[in-house]
Structure formats: C-alpha cells, structure tokens
C-alpha cells in the first residue's frame, strides 16, 4: 500500500534536500577555488658565473718568452708593432737576391737609409757598434738603401767602416711593404718574424739595447 504524506511534510523534506544540496555545492566550489589558486614556487638559486680562463699573452707583450706557431696563425701582417713582418726581396752589394724571411730564427735590425741623409749618417756608428757587439749572437743588421747605385753604397760603406749587410731596394718593394715615408726608419724583428719595435728617425745605442731586451 502506497503511503501518502501531507503536502507540508513533502515541502519540508524538499527544503531540507535543497539546503543539503546547496551546502554540498558550496563546499565543492570553495574547494575548487582553493585548488585553482596559483602556488608560488621557491626561487631557483642562480648559479655563480664560472671564472673566466685568462687568455694567454703572446710573446709580443711578454718579454723573454718566444711566440709559438699557434699564436702566430692569426697574427696580421703589416709594418706595425706586434704584427708579422712583411717579407720582401732586395739585392746585396754582390748582386745576390735576399729575402727577409731568410733570416727567420735571428733577431733583425731592419734599417731604411741613404748615403745623402744626415740623420742616417748620424746613427750609423751606433748601428755598426751593435753589429760588432751582437753579430755573433744571432743578431743581423739589414740596411736597405733606396734610389742609389751599388757603386755609391759600396764606396760609402768602405769610407765609413760599415761591415754589416747592406742591400739595395731596386724596385721599391721593401719601402712600400713597410710604408716608409721618410728615412731613417728602423724596425726591430724577433726570431719568429714579429715586429717588436719600430722607430722613425735616427736610433741610438739606448734604443737598440732596449729593443734587444724585448727579443732575446
């Protein structure tokens, strides 16, 4: 037999049911909002930068240590300090062709000059003295004359007691390679063919000694 309840009881039960449903929904909504709140992750420590490895210094900047082949791979070629010395061909007073690269492994004083140049004449005794003092220790003086004949230079050398290597730049190749605009002009080149010092104007004994210390 089906039981019939009064309408008031039915309404009361429905009201209670709606209240429970509302409470459940509210709880679910609140739980969902809390779960959706963004969480803040702890800051990740930034690792300290690794110390940089010092770049090896070349012999052009460190006195007493020769350069290596690896260090010279990317070295520019030109008539400036710390650059690879440009190669060239000249002719000695016996008519033999010489190249600057023939003297690789030796220290070279490359001097551009002429017999008619007063500052050139003034520096010649100091250059000759350095040749005599260091000539047996792998030191070469290479004098390059431009615009004069073999006879002129040979006569001048004999009259002034010059015994170092004198050559003629018959084509102007050497002067062009070293961008020489005035004489005397001197370049000091180490055993690896690197220009360690250059000077426009007459050199002195002090200048020569200073350059030799930079290219042992």
What is the gist of this entry?
The protein has 216 residues and is of the alpha/beta class. It is built from 5 helices and 7 strands; from the N terminus they run αβββαβαβαββα. The longest helix is centred in the first third of the chain and has 30 residues, at 7-36.
Describe this structure in words.
This protein is α/β, with parallel strands linked by helices and 216 residues long. It folds into two domains: 1-34, no CATH class; 89-213, Glutaredoxin (3-Layer(aba) Sandwich). The protein contains five helices and seven strands, in the order H-E-E-E-H-E-H-E-H-E-E-H. The chain has helices at residues 7-36, 118-134, 150-160, 173-177, 205-213, and strands at residues 89-92, 97-99, 107-113, 139-145, 165-168, 185-189, 195-200. The termini are far apart.
Secondary structure category: alpha/beta
CATH topology of the largest domain: Glutaredoxin
> What would CATH call the homologous superfamily of the largest domain?
Glutaredoxin
CATH architecture of the largest domain: 3-Layer(aba) Sandwich
Strand order of the largest sheet: 2-1-5-4-3-6-7
Q: What level of helicity do the residues show? A: 25-40%
What is the residue-averaged pLDDT? 78
Low-pLDDT residue spans: 24-67
* CATH class division of the largest domain: Alpha Beta
Strand content: 15-25%
Computed over alpha carbons, the radius of gyration is 44 Å
Count the beta strands.
Answer: 7
> Distance between termini?
125 Å
Shape: globular
* Helix segment tally: 5
Biggest sheet record: 7 strands, mixed
